[in-house]
């Protein structure tokens, strides 16, 4: 499924990026799984030095407690991106070959792209897409593939909210920027209260956008 149903209460978490000790601290503060229900919105690897340990722990928890932890795909759960930003090199350094990298990147193809909390909070890594008007369009996507360079799957993993109305060209070179009018229309069409996403560094921990239509 591209749309993973999740029950509340749930602790929703953004990018980890190989910071294994931060992940351990997150569980210390938020509660251990399965005592606490967790939803992670992607980008477990790259940048940090402990991508292997980070993604291994999350996948192990998913296997052990499948109904108490949800792990979505981020734009860094990609063969191409991980060869540039560190995960590939980390696997070579730790194991002497690319076998572990290949196993994990094959697994990433099966991660869900989005999740829906109590049919009200739409969770994903990046943002909205001009090709997707409703949740049925998300469900119909063929997600079991490498992240494409364009199209709706790419947009869900790469797009960002913006202060300007409508759709805009993303400075990232992939996905789009989308304005408050887009968020409001999407939420209204799909009977949603909120879009929750990650993908951008927020020093305060979280940040409201579009008059609390997006977080």
Q: What order do the helices and strands follow?
A: EEHEHEHHHEEHHEEEHE
Quote the average pLDDT: 97
Return Rg in Å. 16 Å
**Shape from CA axes?**
globular
First-last Cα distance: 23 Å
Note the total helix count: 8
- CATH superfamily, called what? Metallo-dependent phosphatases
The main pleated sheet reads as: 4 strands, mixed
User: How many runs of DSSP E, i.e. beta strands?
Assistant: 10
β-sheet strand percentage: 15-25%
| CATH class designation | Alpha Beta
Class by alpha and beta content? alpha/beta
Total of domains: 1
Gross CATH architecture? 4-Layer Sandwich
Helix content: 25-40%
CATH topology: Purple Acid Phosphatase, chain A, domain 2
Structure summary:
The protein has 215 residues and is α/β, with parallel strands linked by helices. The chain is built from 8 helices and 10 strands.
Protein topology:
Layout: E1 3-6, E2 11-13, H1 20-30, E3 38-40, H2 51-64, E4 69-71, H3 79-85, H4 87-95, H5 99-108, E5 114-117, E6 121-124, H6 135-139, H7 152-158, E7 160-161, E8 167-169, E9 176-178, H8 180-189, E10 194-197
Parallel strand pairs: 1-5, 2-3, 3-4, 6-10, 7-9
Antiparallel strand pairs: 5-6, 8-9
